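Researcher: Here's a chain I'd like modeled. Treat it as a single chain, no partners, no ligands.
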Amino acid sequence: MAIYGTALLALCTLLGVALGEALGRLLHVKANVGGVGIAMLLLILAKIWLQRRGKLAPGMRLGVEFWALMYIPIVVAMASQQNVLAAVEGGPMVLLTGVAVVATCFALVGLLGRASGGTR
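Model: Modeled as a single isolated chain. Structure tokens:
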């Protein structure tokens, strides 16, 4: 049954890559825009959909959860394929955007941590 979780990931990956390519064309960018992220969102949505209908068998759940845990290494591997030097040579806007995104993420982590009322 764990193979079904992997098959579901493969389907989500194919759809995510296709949607990322389509989004790239729509934005006139010669790159896949968010394909891996879209794929992982599709995987999460598919898991929720299957759970609500009672069709998520324990083996399939383990396969889906395994790939959900592999999200960060997959994103790191995909990002390592990008040409960082070309991005930096794109000008100061790239660096400014990167700094803004990191600062926003740090602020949101703190905000969400306070809002959730988690223990310390």
